[in-house]
Amino acid sequence: MTIVLTGGCGFIGSHQAVALLEAGHDVVLVDDLSNARESVVDRIAEIAGRRPEFHATDVRDTEALTKVLAASGCDSIIHFAGLKHVSESMERAIDYLDVNLAGLTSVLKAADTTGVRRLVFSSSGSIYGPAERVPIPETAPVNPTNPYSRSKALCEQVLAQVCAVDPSWSVMSLRYFNPAGAHPSGLIGEDPTHLISNLVPVIMETVNGAFDSVPIFGTDFDTDDGTAVRDYIHVMDVVEAHAAALDVVKTTTGFEALNIGRGEGVSVRQLITAAGDVLDRPIPTVEHPRRTGDVAALAADTTRSKKRLGIHDYRGVDTIFRDAWRFRAGRTT
User: Fold this and answer.
1) Which of 199, 231, 247, 331 is most open to solvent, judged by the fewest CB atoms within 10 Å of its CB?
2) How many domains does the chain have?
3) Is residue 245 part of a domain?
4) Is 70 exceeded by the pLDDT of residue 333?
5) What is the reported pTM?
6) Which CATH number goes with the domain that contains 249?
7) pLDDT in tens, 183-215
8) Is residue 226 part of a domain?
9) 3-state secondary structure of 313
10) What is residue 81's three-state secondary structure?
């Protein structure tokens, strides 16, 4: 089976490429390198023993993307490409709608032209907003509080509508809850080129001495220690969920959304403490006011995804930090 990964040089895309290549699939990466490095293709090949095909293409270039899909003869697409930072989206709302929504529309046009009808979509647990119940089930109301989350919610609406009017489509949207960590080889991990804002890589950069301290945004949330609670899941668990989702879309039609998380919330303070314990060193912090658009707690109810995808065991926070540090300590570019 040939699978096209948009955003394939990014954090999750690169790990997905390794897993699919190791499983015997042919993989085609599409990435405009706006927040990723082409050198990751070499690292993917080193780990997997096979090199994926790579195209430096913006997914909004429908003509170019159509040519890639047609030449690849792909069976399925995993659509990772997009902008993903909550705080940045508050300043670049129009860009987020353009890249995320127009990017998806372009992917759908190219797929429709080339007859590809199987797609797994990279969504976000943040679309639920300030949920009434935590852990959050897929049946909870979608109530995004920032342009990033709104763009993901709109993308899901588009995908659901496409499937409703054309029953030949099979789409699964995976709503991630804070992927983190790195490949256990230490060769690939979370390595953005222009904005480091996710908490785990910020902790890694602080431990490495690149940052003076870890910022804590908000200490007055309605949580046990006042800091925001999130559900952190190892990137390799996310990758395994995508592989299982590909199997599902091969045998079903229509639109379905599933939560991808460990099902356990961890506060910012708890996460920083866990990192210090694993890495055996103090981690300085500095407190800041809440960021606009942040909510107190997000954690996944994984009951449905466990049943649908057959995944029951998840790597713990300690493994997330050990693997993330192995990557950060060995990174040279």
Assistant:
1) 247
2) 1
3) yes
4) no
5) 0.96
6) 3.40.50.720
7) 999 999 998 887 788 899 999 999 999 999 999
8) no
9) coil
10) coil
207-215, long-range: CB < 8 A, 24+ apart: 207/275, 207/279, 207/281, 207/283, 207/325, 207/328, 208/328, 208/329, 212/284, 212/286, 213/284, 213/285, 213/286, 214/272, 214/283, 214/284, 214/285, 214/286, 215/285, 215/286, 215/287, 215/288
Cα–Cα distance, 271 to 251 (Å, whole number): 39
> Do the domain assignments include residue 51?
yes
User: 147-165 vs 103-114: helix axis angle to the nearest 10?
Assistant: 20
User: What domain range includes position 20?
Assistant: 2-181+232-261
Q: Which of 148, 176, 232, 314 is catalytic?
A: 148
Residue with tokens 């994984």: 302
Token representation of residue 318:
């300690």
Phi/psi of residue 47, nearest 5 degrees: -75, -45
Question: Cα angle vertex 62, ends 59, 63, to 5°?
Answer: 125
199 within domain boundaries: no
148 as an active site residue: the answer is yes
